[in-house]
Write a structure and sequence with these properties.
With about 200 residues, the chain is of the alpha+beta class. About 45% of the residues lie in helices and about 20% in strands. It is built from 7 helices and 5 strands. The protein has helices spanning about 20-40, 45-55, 60-70, 70-75, 80-100, 160-175, 175-185; strands spanning about 10-15, 105-115, 120-130, 135-145, 145-155. Strands 1-2-3-4-5 form a 5-stranded mixed beta sheet. The two termini are about 20 Å apart.
């Protein structure tokens, strides 16, 4: 997803005078990534371990899945809903990994946060990388019963999640849910054998 570059860009995190809970949440993710970037440890294996430990469970998979599948979400069984959430989580994490290993010595600064009633919030950040133009990123988070969860991260106003939603609609309309699942599973490096 275009959220992919969000986790690739955190070496130094500027602390504002007063941070919201959402800003603190984004900062905490960046700070956990910092040792990898500082020590030049951005190997696929280390990145994979970081994402599985710090990101995978932070994704708002129910909300993401409902958004991506549209009305098909209510048409599939509860079992298929759980399968899709598991498979699509792997898909998101693998996309994060492919992007993250390409970034080093980046700096992310929190610009501001914007509340979206009733429970959403956006954290606007700016990412600077050596010899590259700054990137503006919008972290879209939602407050759930167990805390903040990641819904999407758009880069330069472009959301990969929205693009994926449009792509999947075409597949679903023409071939159906089971075909879509096979297509997603075929693209995974390490398919979830319980769901694929």
């Amino acid at each position: 997803l275009a959220a992919v570059t969000a986790f690739a860009c955190a070496l130094v995190v500027a602390a504002p005078a007063e941070a919201t809970d959402a800003e603190a949440y984004v900062r905490s993710i960046a700070e956990k990534l910092q040792p990898l970037l500082q020590n030049g440890n951005l190997t696929p294996k280390n990145v994979d371990e970081f994402l599985e430990t710090n990101i995978a469970d932070q994704l708002d998979m129910t909300r993401i899945s409902k958004y991506v599948l549209r009305n098909y979400w209510t048409e599939i069984s509860n079992r298929d809903q759980e399968k899709f959430k598991n498979v699509f989580r792997y898909f998101i994490v693998e996309n994060f990994k492919h992007q993250l290993v390409r970034y080093n010595n980046a700096e992310i600064r929190i610009v501001r946060s914007i509340e979206h009633e009733p429970e959403g919030v956006s954290v606007i950040t700016r990412v600077r990388m050596p010899s590259r133009s700054p990137l503006d990123m919008n972290w879209r988070l939602f407050r759930e019963d167990n805390g903040l969860k990641i819904f999407d991260v758009s880069v330069q106003g472009i959301s990969k999640l929205t693009a994926t939603r449009s792509e999947y609609k075409t597949v679903l309309d023409e071939h159906g849910f089971q075909y879509l699942m096979k297509q997603i599973c075929s693209k995974l490096e390490t398919p979830d054998r319980t769901s694929c």
